[in-house]
Amino acid sequence: MKNDRKVIRSWAFFDWANSAYNLVITSTIFPAYYTIITTTKQHGDQVSFFGFQFTNTALSNYALSFAYLLMVIVLPIFSSIADYRGNKKTFMKFFTYMGGFACMGLFFFRLETLETGIICFVIAAMGYIGGVLISNSYLPEIATPDHQDQVSAKGFAFGYIGSVVLQLICFFFVLKPELFGITDASFPARLSFLLVGIWWIAFAQIPFKNLPSGNIGSKKINKNVVKNGFQELKKVWSQLSGMHFMKLFLLAFFFYSMGVQTIMLAAAGFGEKTLKLGTSKLIATILIIQLVAILGAILMSYFAKKIGNVRVLIYVVIIWIGACFCGYYVANEYQFYALAALVGLIMGGIQSLSRSTYSKYIPEDSRDTTSFFSFYDVTEKLAIVIGLFSFAFIEEVTGSMRNSIIALAGFFVIGLVFLFLLKNIEKKLAVI
After folding, report:
1. For tag attachment on the chain, is the N or C end more exposed, with fewer CB atoms within 10 Å?
2. CA 124/CA 30 separation, integer angstroms
3. pTM (2 decimals)?
4. What distance in Å separates the CA atoms of residue 399 and residue 165, rounded to the nearest whole number?
5. What are phi and psi of 144, to 5 degrees?
């Protein structure tokens, strides 16, 4: 039964569980720790990875880009098998355990184990990406279209709150290690990575217990099923030819996601490397972003009811473009804090509203919701691959992250153009 409070709350707890990875590993402690240990007097910000030389922050962005690219390739296969066998919860568990244990593996990450650390970093990202796909595909199954904006916002709110709670716990270890008798300077950060893995797996047991399992079949997996994953994407693409609204939305989503996701993933590295904020200030800044993002998700859901999803997205993307230009000129920590608050407000809103907007246009009689969300996730992951690779490449070529940030504004502008086209179509179709 849709709109069941217990089921929706359990689904939201998956965001509570895995968002700890997104905050600690991709946004705060790991980027700061990684930048510090890979910056040496002898080699500066250059590191050797399997014999190849990279700028340290560019390497981590390349690694994330590779993780997303790999998942773009395998996600259609997993989603096809999940639809075929009706066991999406099994895959949710698989990705959760893969990501959680990889985070635990980062406890052993030091400069001398750079290669192993980067590999764990990539595997953790893959676990997070896969889990989000399966979680997203549950949205149209647990909520009716008129509730999906609110439910989506609730998921993001749970994610932000849960990640902040764990971040505060880690914060005490990082700032006051002497209270716990810690003398190894690297231990608080590495302990944080271990706690993320434990937190992720532990709280994921709530959705594992209460989310619907589906009609699990005993059908054997064969070549046709694996091939069917890509055929399903092709099928969704074919269906889009008659769904003008969704097609334009996905094009807009593709381009503005290049900017949104890249900024989210690279912001901590920028703060540490360019502004020399230090771990404690960086963590405090990201906490501000997370807390404001909760308000952003709720506000965007409210305004979407008043003026429509697309119009809200247009306003938000315009603000993102302004944020990119502000990021290029930011020169001190106070400007960075102000910009962080702004980014947090629009970050929560654009993610939540994008997910729920897409969910509304999946045919209500469709049984293959995983395939539709696989297409959505592939679109987003391809955007991240291009965005992160562009960010890393521009930094390596120009020697400055500021140039990378200003380049992202171009992606937002293209996305904005498609949103305006979408708005015109919306008037004719009266979809929202």
Report:
1. N
2. 12
3. 0.76
4. 36
5. -75, 160
DSSP state letter for 40: B
Q: 176-209 pLDDT, tens per residue? A: 888 888 888 889 999 999 999 999 999 999 999 9
Q: Which CATH class is domain 10-210+235-429?
A: mainly alpha
Within 10 A of 339 (CB to CB), how many other CB atoms are there?
A: 20
**What's the full length of the chain, in residues?**
432
Of 90, 77, 370, 366, nearest in space to 228 by CA:
77
Angle of helix 369-398 relative to helix 223-240, nearest 10 degrees, comes to 80
309 and 362 in contact (C-beta within 8 Å)? no
Torsion of CA 67, 406, 271, 111, to 10 degrees: 40
Question: Can you tell me the distance from the alpha carbon of 299 to that of 153, in angstroms, rounded to the nearest whole number?
Answer: 9
Give domain limits for the chain: 10-210+235-429
Is residue 172 within 8 A of residue 179, CB to CB? The reply is: yes
Q: For residues 284-316, b (16+ Cβ closer than 10 Å) or e, as one string?
A: bbbbbbbbbbbebbbbbbebbeeebbbbbbbeb
CA 237/CA 389 separation, integer angstroms: 25
Left if phi > 0, otherwise alpha if psi is -120 to 50, otherwise beta: which for 345? alpha
Amino acid letter, residue 101: F
Residue 212: count of CB within 10 angstroms of its CB:
14
Do 377 and 133 meet the contact criterion of CB atoms below 8 Å apart?
yes
Per-residue pLDDT of the chain (432 residues), as tens digits, is 688 889 999 999 999 999 889 888 887 788 888 988 998 888 888 999 998 999 888 899 899 889 989 988 887 777 667 666 667 888 899 999 999 999 999 999 999 999 999 999 999 999 998 898 888 878 878 888 778 878 887 887 888 788 888 988 988 888 888 888 888 888 999 999 999 999 999 999 999 998 887 655 545 555 565 566 667 667 777 777 777 778 888 999 999 999 987 887 777 777 777 777 776 777 777 777 777 877 887 888 888 888 888 899 999 999 999 999 998 898 888 888 888 888 888 887 888 788 888 887 776 665 566 677 778 878 888 898 899 889 889 988 888 888 988 889 999 999 999 999 988 876 665 545
> 169: which residues sit within 8 A by CB, 6+ positions away?
195
Report how far apart, in Å, the C-alpha atoms of 300 and of each of 153, 258, 340 are.
9, 20, 18
Q: Which DSSP state fits 145?
A: G
